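Attaching the record inline, Q. Sequence:
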Amino acid sequence: MKFDIKEEDMIIKPYKTDGPIYIREQKGFFQKIRRYLSWVLMIAFIAIPFIPYDGKQAILLDVATQQFRIFGATFLPQDFMILAWIFMSGAFALFFVTNWLGRVWCGYICPQTVWMLLFTWVEHKMEGTRNQRIKLDKSAWSIGKVRKKAIKHSLWLAISLFTATSFMAYFIPVKVLYSEMFTLQWSGITSFWVFLFAFCTYGNAGFLREKMCTVACPYSRFQSVMFDKDTLVVTYDSVRGEHRGPRKRKDEPAKVGLGDCVDCNLCVDVCPAGIDIRNGLQYECINCGLCIDACNDTMNKFGYAKNLISYQSENQAEGKTTNPFRLKLLGYASLTALLLVTMVIWVFNRTPIEASVIRDRNALYRMNYEGLVENPYTLSIINKTQQTMSYHISMSGLDSAELKVPTRITIEGGQMDLVPVTAIADGYELTKKSTAIKFTIDALEDSSITITKDSYFYKN
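Structure, as predicted:
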Protein backbone atom coordinates (compact mmCIF):
# COMPACT_ATOMS: atom_id res chain seq x y z
CA MET A 1 0.00 0.00 0.00
CA LYS A 2 1.51 3.34 -1.08
CA PHE A 3 0.88 6.83 0.26
CA ASP A 4 1.41 10.10 -1.56
CA ILE A 5 3.78 12.33 0.39
CA LYS A 6 3.34 16.00 -0.42
CA GLU A 7 6.20 18.44 -0.16
CA GLU A 8 4.45 20.53 2.48
CA ASP A 9 4.08 17.42 4.63
CA MET A 10 7.86 17.12 4.77
CA ILE A 11 8.27 20.62 6.21
CA ILE A 12 8.67 20.14 9.95
CA LYS A 13 8.85 22.92 12.46
CA PRO A 14 12.40 22.99 13.88
CA TYR A 15 12.67 21.67 17.40
CA LYS A 16 15.64 23.86 18.31
CA THR A 17 15.12 26.69 20.76
CA ASP A 18 17.35 29.45 22.12
CA GLY A 19 17.06 28.05 25.62
CA PRO A 20 19.24 25.42 27.28
CA ILE A 21 19.41 21.94 25.77
CA TYR A 22 18.66 19.10 28.16
CA ILE A 23 20.41 16.06 26.75
CA ARG A 24 18.80 12.72 27.44
CA GLU A 25 21.21 9.99 28.45
CA GLN A 26 21.32 7.29 25.81
CA LYS A 27 22.85 3.84 25.67
CA GLY A 28 23.68 1.99 22.51
CA PHE A 29 26.36 0.96 20.07
CA PHE A 30 27.56 4.41 19.02
CA GLN A 31 27.33 5.83 22.53
CA LYS A 32 29.49 2.94 23.73
CA ILE A 33 32.11 3.83 21.12
CA ARG A 34 32.05 7.45 22.26
CA ARG A 35 32.47 6.51 25.93
CA TYR A 36 35.34 4.10 25.29
CA LEU A 37 37.10 6.62 23.06
CA SER A 38 36.56 9.35 25.63
CA TRP A 39 38.12 7.25 28.38
CA VAL A 40 41.10 6.35 26.20
CA LEU A 41 41.66 9.97 25.15
CA MET A 42 41.31 11.40 28.65
CA ILE A 43 43.60 8.78 30.22
CA ALA A 44 46.19 9.39 27.48
CA PHE A 45 45.91 13.16 27.97
CA ILE A 46 46.56 12.84 31.70
CA ALA A 47 49.20 10.08 31.56
CA ILE A 48 51.48 11.22 28.71
CA PRO A 49 53.39 13.87 30.77
CA PHE A 50 54.23 11.19 33.36
CA ILE A 51 56.01 8.96 30.82
CA PRO A 52 59.80 9.00 31.49
CA TYR A 53 62.56 8.64 28.92
CA ASP A 54 66.27 8.52 29.81
CA GLY A 55 65.49 9.93 33.24
CA LYS A 56 63.58 12.89 31.85
CA GLN A 57 59.99 13.68 30.93
CA ALA A 58 59.43 12.06 27.53
CA ILE A 59 57.25 14.84 26.12
CA LEU A 60 57.82 18.39 27.32
CA LEU A 61 57.12 21.58 25.40
CA ASP A 62 59.32 23.81 27.53
CA VAL A 63 58.43 27.32 26.38
CA ALA A 64 60.61 28.97 29.03
CA THR A 65 63.81 27.46 27.59
CA GLN A 66 62.41 27.29 24.02
CA GLN A 67 62.96 23.54 23.85
CA PHE A 68 60.43 20.93 22.77
CA ARG A 69 61.49 17.53 24.02
CA ILE A 70 59.87 14.50 22.41
CA PHE A 71 61.42 11.27 23.68
CA GLY A 72 65.04 11.26 22.46
CA ALA A 73 64.83 14.38 20.29
CA THR A 74 65.03 18.02 21.27
CA PHE A 75 63.42 20.53 18.91
CA LEU A 76 64.47 24.15 19.07
CA PRO A 77 62.99 27.25 17.41
CA GLN A 78 65.20 26.50 14.39
CA ASP A 79 63.22 23.27 13.94
CA PHE A 80 59.78 24.84 13.85
CA MET A 81 59.39 23.70 10.25
CA ILE A 82 58.08 20.49 11.80
CA LEU A 83 55.03 22.40 13.03
CA ALA A 84 54.20 23.28 9.44
CA TRP A 85 54.38 19.60 8.47
CA ILE A 86 52.23 18.58 11.45
CA PHE A 87 49.55 21.21 10.80
CA MET A 88 49.40 20.55 7.06
CA SER A 89 49.24 16.76 7.40
CA GLY A 90 46.67 17.11 10.20
CA ALA A 91 44.52 19.40 8.06
CA PHE A 92 44.51 17.06 5.08
CA ALA A 93 43.88 14.06 7.37
CA LEU A 94 40.84 15.91 8.71
CA PHE A 95 39.68 16.67 5.16
CA PHE A 96 40.08 12.99 4.27
CA VAL A 97 38.08 11.75 7.26
CA THR A 98 35.40 14.39 6.71
CA ASN A 99 34.96 13.45 3.07
CA TRP A 100 34.76 9.79 4.02
CA LEU A 101 32.81 9.74 7.31
CA GLY A 102 31.43 13.25 7.68
CA ARG A 103 31.89 15.19 10.90
CA VAL A 104 32.96 12.23 13.05
CA TRP A 105 35.90 14.19 14.48
CA CYS A 106 33.39 16.45 16.20
CA GLY A 107 31.20 13.61 17.36
CA TYR A 108 33.81 11.27 18.78
CA ILE A 109 37.30 12.77 19.23
CA CYS A 110 37.09 16.56 19.58
CA PRO A 111 38.15 17.65 23.12
CA GLN A 112 35.06 19.87 23.32
CA THR A 113 32.84 16.82 22.74
CA VAL A 114 34.81 14.58 25.11
CA TRP A 115 34.66 17.02 28.02
CA MET A 116 31.04 17.98 27.27
CA LEU A 117 30.16 14.28 27.50
CA LEU A 118 31.94 14.09 30.88
CA PHE A 119 30.19 17.19 32.20
CA THR A 120 26.74 16.01 31.10
CA TRP A 121 27.42 12.63 32.73
CA VAL A 122 28.16 14.43 36.03
CA GLU A 123 25.02 16.51 35.56
CA HIS A 124 22.93 13.39 35.00
CA LYS A 125 24.33 11.73 38.14
CA MET A 126 23.80 14.80 40.34
CA GLU A 127 20.48 16.14 39.04
CA GLY A 128 18.78 13.11 37.53
CA THR A 129 17.29 12.31 34.16
CA ARG A 130 16.41 14.83 31.47
CA ASN A 131 12.86 15.32 32.74
CA GLN A 132 14.09 15.61 36.33
CA ARG A 133 16.61 18.28 35.32
CA ILE A 134 13.95 20.29 33.48
CA LYS A 135 11.68 20.06 36.49
CA LEU A 136 14.51 21.02 38.84
CA ASP A 137 15.39 24.14 36.84
CA LYS A 138 11.75 25.26 36.74
CA SER A 139 11.21 24.70 40.45
CA ALA A 140 11.69 27.35 43.13
CA TRP A 141 14.99 27.52 44.99
CA SER A 142 15.19 25.18 47.95
CA ILE A 143 17.83 23.52 50.09
CA GLY A 144 17.66 20.40 47.92
CA LYS A 145 18.08 22.39 44.71
CA VAL A 146 21.00 24.41 46.10
CA ARG A 147 22.69 21.23 47.30
CA LYS A 148 22.42 19.50 43.91
CA LYS A 149 23.60 22.58 42.01
CA ALA A 150 26.47 23.16 44.43
CA ILE A 151 27.72 19.58 44.18
CA LYS A 152 27.45 19.61 40.39
CA HIS A 153 29.36 22.87 39.97
CA SER A 154 31.94 21.83 42.54
CA LEU A 155 32.64 18.68 40.56
CA TRP A 156 32.76 20.68 37.33
CA LEU A 157 35.27 23.09 38.85
CA ALA A 158 37.39 20.23 40.22
CA ILE A 159 37.44 18.54 36.79
CA SER A 160 38.28 21.86 35.13
CA LEU A 161 41.15 22.55 37.52
CA PHE A 162 42.55 19.05 37.09
CA THR A 163 42.21 19.36 33.30
CA ALA A 164 44.06 22.68 33.28
CA THR A 165 46.83 21.31 35.52
CA SER A 166 47.20 18.24 33.29
CA PHE A 167 47.46 20.52 30.27
CA MET A 168 50.15 22.67 31.90
CA ALA A 169 52.16 19.49 32.58
CA TYR A 170 53.00 19.49 28.87
CA PHE A 171 54.76 22.86 29.30
CA ILE A 172 56.19 22.64 32.82
CA PRO A 173 58.07 19.56 34.10
CA VAL A 174 55.41 17.44 35.75
CA LYS A 175 57.41 16.88 38.95
CA VAL A 176 57.94 20.60 39.39
CA LEU A 177 54.33 21.45 38.56
CA TYR A 178 52.70 19.05 41.01
CA SER A 179 55.26 19.49 43.80
CA GLU A 180 54.77 23.26 43.65
CA MET A 181 51.00 22.78 43.54
CA PHE A 182 50.92 20.70 46.73
CA THR A 183 53.26 23.14 48.50
CA LEU A 184 51.37 26.19 47.21
CA GLN A 185 54.46 27.56 45.47
CA TRP A 186 53.12 28.14 41.98
CA SER A 187 54.50 31.27 40.35
CA GLY A 188 52.14 34.02 39.24
CA ILE A 189 52.43 33.08 35.57
CA THR A 190 51.73 29.39 36.28
CA SER A 191 48.71 30.24 38.42
CA PHE A 192 47.40 32.60 35.74
CA TRP A 193 47.50 30.02 32.97
CA VAL A 194 46.13 27.17 35.09
CA PHE A 195 43.15 29.20 36.28
CA LEU A 196 42.58 30.64 32.80
CA PHE A 197 42.45 27.16 31.24
CA ALA A 198 40.27 25.93 34.12
CA PHE A 199 37.86 28.81 33.54
CA CYS A 200 37.73 28.07 29.79
CA THR A 201 37.09 24.36 30.41
CA TYR A 202 34.38 25.14 32.96
CA GLY A 203 32.69 27.63 30.64
CA ASN A 204 33.00 25.66 27.41
CA ALA A 205 31.99 22.20 28.65
CA GLY A 206 29.57 23.37 31.32
CA PHE A 207 27.72 26.27 29.73
CA LEU A 208 28.57 26.99 26.09
CA ARG A 209 28.55 23.31 25.12
CA GLU A 210 26.88 22.95 21.72
CA LYS A 211 27.29 26.67 20.99
CA MET A 212 31.04 26.10 20.66
CA CYS A 213 30.26 23.55 17.93
CA THR A 214 27.50 25.45 16.14
CA VAL A 215 28.63 29.07 16.55
CA ALA A 216 32.29 29.41 17.52
CA CYS A 217 33.90 26.48 15.67
CA PRO A 218 34.64 27.35 12.01
CA TYR A 219 34.74 23.67 11.05
CA SER A 220 30.95 23.43 11.12
CA ARG A 221 30.76 26.25 8.58
CA PHE A 222 33.07 24.90 5.91
CA GLN A 223 32.62 21.14 6.37
CA SER A 224 30.03 21.00 3.57
CA VAL A 225 32.75 21.97 1.08
CA MET A 226 34.38 18.59 1.73
CA PHE A 227 31.14 16.60 1.50
CA ASP A 228 30.01 14.82 -1.65
CA LYS A 229 27.25 12.37 -2.52
CA ASP A 230 29.32 9.47 -1.15
CA THR A 231 30.09 10.98 2.28
CA LEU A 232 28.61 8.96 5.15
CA VAL A 233 26.41 11.20 7.30
CA VAL A 234 23.58 10.64 9.77
CA THR A 235 20.49 10.39 7.62
CA TYR A 236 16.78 9.94 8.29
CA ASP A 237 14.95 7.67 5.83
CA SER A 238 11.97 9.92 5.12
CA VAL A 239 10.43 7.54 2.59
CA ARG A 240 10.24 4.79 5.15
CA GLY A 241 9.49 7.03 8.13
CA GLU A 242 6.72 9.27 6.79
CA HIS A 243 3.93 9.81 7.51
CA ARG A 244 4.97 9.85 11.13
CA GLY A 245 2.75 9.66 14.14
CA PRO A 246 2.07 7.87 17.45
CA ARG A 247 0.46 4.46 17.46
CA LYS A 248 0.06 1.38 19.61
CA ARG A 249 2.86 -1.15 19.57
CA LYS A 250 0.66 -3.82 18.00
CA ASP A 251 -0.51 -1.55 15.17
CA GLU A 252 0.84 -2.26 11.73
CA PRO A 253 2.00 1.02 10.11
CA ALA A 254 0.47 0.22 6.72
CA LYS A 255 -2.97 -0.39 8.21
CA VAL A 256 -3.06 2.87 10.16
CA GLY A 257 -1.64 4.92 7.30
CA LEU A 258 1.66 5.74 8.99
CA GLY A 259 5.34 5.27 8.33
CA ASP A 260 7.81 3.69 10.74
CA CYS A 261 8.55 6.92 12.62
CA VAL A 262 6.44 6.92 15.79
CA ASP A 263 7.23 10.61 16.43
CA CYS A 264 8.65 9.91 19.90
CA ASN A 265 11.16 12.79 19.61
CA LEU A 266 13.87 10.72 21.32
CA CYS A 267 16.20 11.46 18.43
CA VAL A 268 15.90 15.14 19.37
CA ASP A 269 16.13 14.61 23.13
CA VAL A 270 19.49 12.84 22.88
CA CYS A 271 21.05 15.24 20.35
CA PRO A 272 23.90 17.31 21.87
CA ALA A 273 23.16 20.08 19.34
CA GLY A 274 19.40 19.99 19.95
CA ILE A 275 18.48 19.50 16.27
CA ASP A 276 15.88 17.31 14.62
CA ILE A 277 17.68 15.08 12.13
CA ARG A 278 14.34 14.43 10.44
CA ASN A 279 14.58 17.94 8.98
CA GLY A 280 17.48 16.78 6.84
CA LEU A 281 21.23 17.33 6.99
CA GLN A 282 22.13 20.40 9.07
CA TYR A 283 25.50 21.97 9.70
CA GLU A 284 24.96 21.67 13.47
CA CYS A 285 24.97 17.85 13.27
CA ILE A 286 28.22 16.46 14.72
CA ASN A 287 27.66 12.92 13.39
CA CYS A 288 27.77 11.41 16.90
CA GLY A 289 25.14 8.72 16.16
CA LEU A 290 23.15 9.20 19.40
CA CYS A 291 19.94 9.69 17.43
CA ILE A 292 20.66 6.36 15.69
CA ASP A 293 20.91 4.57 19.04
CA ALA A 294 17.72 6.22 20.32
CA CYS A 295 15.77 5.43 17.16
CA ASN A 296 17.00 1.82 17.07
CA ASP A 297 15.79 1.35 20.67
CA THR A 298 12.34 2.55 19.62
CA MET A 299 12.35 0.34 16.52
CA ASN A 300 13.18 -2.67 18.70
CA LYS A 301 10.28 -1.91 21.03
CA PHE A 302 7.83 -1.71 18.13
CA GLY A 303 9.31 -4.67 16.27
CA TYR A 304 10.34 -2.58 13.24
CA ALA A 305 13.53 -2.86 11.24
CA LYS A 306 16.47 -0.89 12.60
CA ASN A 307 18.30 2.00 10.98
CA LEU A 308 15.40 4.31 10.22
CA ILE A 309 18.15 6.77 11.09
CA SER A 310 21.58 5.55 10.04
CA TYR A 311 24.96 6.42 8.60
CA GLN A 312 24.57 6.48 4.86
CA SER A 313 25.54 8.57 1.89
CA GLU A 314 23.24 10.51 -0.39
CA ASN A 315 23.83 7.92 -3.11
CA GLN A 316 22.92 5.09 -0.73
CA ALA A 317 19.75 6.90 0.27
CA GLU A 318 18.82 7.02 -3.42
CA GLY A 319 19.54 3.32 -3.88
CA LYS A 320 22.85 3.85 -5.64
CA THR A 321 26.29 2.41 -4.86
CA THR A 322 28.88 4.40 -2.92
CA ASN A 323 32.19 4.82 -4.73
CA PRO A 324 35.06 4.25 -2.26
CA PHE A 325 37.69 5.32 -4.83
CA ARG A 326 36.39 8.75 -5.74
CA LEU A 327 38.89 11.39 -6.81
CA LYS A 328 38.40 13.80 -3.91
CA LEU A 329 38.83 11.08 -1.27
CA LEU A 330 41.92 9.64 -2.96
CA GLY A 331 43.34 13.14 -3.36
CA TYR A 332 43.00 13.93 0.35
CA ALA A 333 44.45 10.52 1.27
CA SER A 334 47.41 10.95 -1.09
CA LEU A 335 48.23 14.45 0.17
CA THR A 336 48.00 13.28 3.79
CA ALA A 337 50.32 10.34 3.12
CA LEU A 338 52.74 12.52 1.13
CA LEU A 339 52.98 15.12 3.90
CA LEU A 340 53.44 12.46 6.60
CA VAL A 341 56.20 10.75 4.61
CA THR A 342 57.88 14.11 4.00
CA MET A 343 57.70 14.93 7.70
CA VAL A 344 59.19 11.56 8.67
CA ILE A 345 62.03 11.97 6.15
CA TRP A 346 62.70 15.50 7.43
CA VAL A 347 62.86 14.27 11.04
CA PHE A 348 65.21 11.38 10.22
CA ASN A 349 67.48 13.61 8.14
CA ARG A 350 67.52 16.31 10.81
CA THR A 351 71.03 16.86 12.14
CA PRO A 352 71.15 16.81 15.96
CA ILE A 353 73.46 19.81 15.97
CA GLU A 354 73.00 23.40 14.87
CA ALA A 355 75.77 25.93 14.26
CA SER A 356 76.36 29.36 12.83
CA VAL A 357 79.45 31.49 12.18
CA ILE A 358 79.41 35.00 13.66
CA ARG A 359 81.85 37.60 12.32
CA ASP A 360 82.87 40.82 14.04
CA ARG A 361 81.90 43.41 11.42
CA ASN A 362 84.18 46.02 12.98
CA ALA A 363 87.28 43.81 12.79
CA LEU A 364 87.16 41.37 9.89
CA TYR A 365 90.91 40.82 10.21
CA ARG A 366 93.93 42.05 12.19
CA MET A 367 97.73 41.77 12.03
CA ASN A 368 99.52 40.12 14.91
CA TYR A 369 103.05 40.90 16.15
CA GLU A 370 104.50 38.26 13.80
CA GLY A 371 103.02 39.99 10.77
CA LEU A 372 100.45 37.23 10.20
CA VAL A 373 96.80 37.86 9.38
CA GLU A 374 94.27 36.84 12.01
CA ASN A 375 90.52 36.44 11.44
CA PRO A 376 88.41 36.14 14.61
CA TYR A 377 85.16 34.15 14.55
CA THR A 378 82.57 33.07 17.06
CA LEU A 379 80.89 29.72 16.46
CA SER A 380 77.43 29.35 17.95
CA ILE A 381 76.89 25.62 18.56
CA ILE A 382 73.60 24.10 19.75
CA ASN A 383 73.45 20.54 21.04
CA LYS A 384 70.00 19.35 19.91
CA THR A 385 70.28 15.99 21.65
CA GLN A 386 69.35 15.32 25.26
CA GLN A 387 72.83 14.05 26.19
CA THR A 388 76.01 15.96 26.96
CA MET A 389 78.17 15.92 23.83
CA SER A 390 81.79 16.83 23.06
CA TYR A 391 82.83 18.37 19.74
CA HIS A 392 85.97 18.91 17.69
CA ILE A 393 86.28 21.88 15.31
CA SER A 394 88.42 21.82 12.17
CA MET A 395 88.86 24.18 9.22
CA SER A 396 89.48 23.57 5.51
CA GLY A 397 90.18 25.87 2.58
CA LEU A 398 93.48 27.32 3.83
CA ASP A 399 96.14 24.63 3.80
CA SER A 400 98.82 26.64 5.55
CA ALA A 401 96.50 28.29 8.06
CA GLU A 402 96.55 27.67 11.79
CA LEU A 403 93.35 27.41 13.82
CA LYS A 404 93.26 28.47 17.45
CA VAL A 405 90.35 26.69 19.07
CA PRO A 406 89.75 24.60 22.20
CA THR A 407 90.63 20.98 21.52
CA ARG A 408 87.41 19.74 23.07
CA ILE A 409 84.12 21.64 23.40
CA THR A 410 81.59 20.07 25.76
CA ILE A 411 77.93 21.18 25.62
CA GLU A 412 75.07 19.85 27.70
CA GLY A 413 71.94 18.45 26.04
CA GLY A 414 69.64 21.09 24.60
CA GLN A 415 72.12 23.89 25.34
CA MET A 416 74.00 26.43 23.22
CA ASP A 417 77.59 27.56 23.60
CA LEU A 418 79.57 30.38 21.95
CA VAL A 419 83.07 29.23 21.00
CA PRO A 420 85.73 31.84 20.04
CA VAL A 421 87.85 30.71 17.09
CA THR A 422 90.81 32.42 15.43
CA ALA A 423 92.22 31.51 12.01
CA ILE A 424 95.82 32.62 11.32
CA ALA A 425 97.54 32.68 7.90
CA ASP A 426 100.44 34.34 6.11
CA GLY A 427 98.92 37.11 4.02
CA TYR A 428 101.71 36.92 1.41
CA GLU A 429 100.66 33.36 0.51
CA LEU A 430 97.09 34.45 -0.26
CA THR A 431 96.37 35.75 -3.75
CA LYS A 432 92.84 36.99 -3.01
CA LYS A 433 91.51 39.44 -0.49
CA SER A 434 88.91 36.87 0.58
CA THR A 435 89.20 33.10 0.56
CA ALA A 436 86.31 30.68 1.08
CA ILE A 437 86.79 28.40 4.05
CA LYS A 438 84.73 25.77 5.85
CA PHE A 439 84.37 25.01 9.54
CA THR A 440 83.53 21.38 10.33
CA ILE A 441 82.14 20.42 13.74
CA ASP A 442 82.25 16.72 14.62
CA ALA A 443 80.77 15.00 17.67
CA LEU A 444 83.39 12.88 19.41
CA GLU A 445 80.81 10.42 20.80
CA ASP A 446 79.07 9.83 17.46
CA SER A 447 80.90 10.21 14.17
CA SER A 448 77.62 10.47 12.26
CA ILE A 449 76.86 13.81 13.95
CA THR A 450 78.68 16.44 11.94
CA ILE A 451 77.93 19.82 10.41
CA THR A 452 79.84 22.12 8.06
CA LYS A 453 79.50 25.90 7.89
CA ASP A 454 80.88 28.22 5.19
CA SER A 455 82.71 31.47 5.85
CA TYR A 456 85.53 33.63 4.44
CA PHE A 457 89.07 34.52 5.45
CA TYR A 458 90.01 38.14 4.75
CA LYS A 459 93.38 39.88 4.40
CA ASN A 460 94.35 43.51 3.88
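The two ends are 104 Å apart (CA to CA). Confidence is low (pLDDT under 50) at residues 1-15.

More tomorrow.
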